[in-house]
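User: I'm writing a tutorial on reading structure tokens. Could you give me a worked example: one chain, its sequence, then its tokens, then a sentence or two explaining what the tokens reveal?
Assistant: Sure. Here is the example chain.
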Amino acid sequence: MRRIGLVIVLAVSIALAPLVTGAQQAGKVYRIGWLAITPPTSPPVQRQFEIFLQGLRDHGFVEGQNVIIERRYSEGREDRHTAFAAEFVQMKVDLIVANSSAAAHAAKHATSTIPIVVLGVADPERQGLVTSLAHPGGNLTGISSQLGAELSGKLLQLLKESLPRLSKVAILWNPDNQGSATTFREGDVPAARALGVTLVSLEVRGPADLDSALKTIASERPDALWVHLVAFPFRARLLEFAAKNRLATVAQTSSWPQYGALMSYGADPVDLQRRGAAQVARILNGAKPADLPVEQPTKFELVVNLKTAKALGSTIPQSVLVRADEIIQ
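And here are its predicted structure tokens:
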């Protein structure tokens, strides 16, 4: 009987061995480098980060127990990403999470071996970050943020429905940020052309360019202001300027209407964070980034600020409101 029992134990052990191979190493504490633009000091950004942490917990990775997260923020100065990425390499982190195109390129340049997961980066394939979305082929994978011209066209169409007389839109983008540049040239410009809207292009690489951009807006007198994610560090000043000049502001991230923009339409940031956390967990459990396809967004949200619309003297049509995921009163 003892011999039969020993044989059974050995057989079960052999059968379970492949399952254990890809699991978390017992007692190991993983170190993650978190590279983003803005620290989680505002409620929307804080909520997104909490969703990411909850996603990790759902997969057995708990900050302070078996995970340490080293946080670094560029706060509008994209040149900082290079130094931060190099710092992560020196720390020998187990994985880098890049929350913007600039962060992704800095991390990719800094290391070809440490896994990188991007969260909400526009068109990683067109930016040259991966060989293809289905087969990344290197040390980078993650979650893409948008579907190119389709998303830009949707946002602009919603804005035109809300402002029927819309004919000219000022747009803030950063030519040094490959995600912003790709979105502008391959998404925003064709979308505006298709809808007969004139774009006033405002290149903002950093704080030094903001004053001249605002002067151009004041002289051009557009009907609306369209901001890319790279403008987030200047959000307070831009929205103050827009309110003073009765200028409708739109963006592709929901945090903007929370602080006074007219509307936003884009990939659901909560969904991006949750799915990104799942990608991180898979890699920490042994998966290779090259084998994990870059996932496309599947959930999108429209947020409308009626308080801002009222201040602008605009009435958002019911055709737009019925499609809104959130309406700020």
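What the tokens reveal: The longest strand covers residues 30-36. The domain at 149-267+301-328 is CATH 3.40.50.2300 (Rossmann fold).
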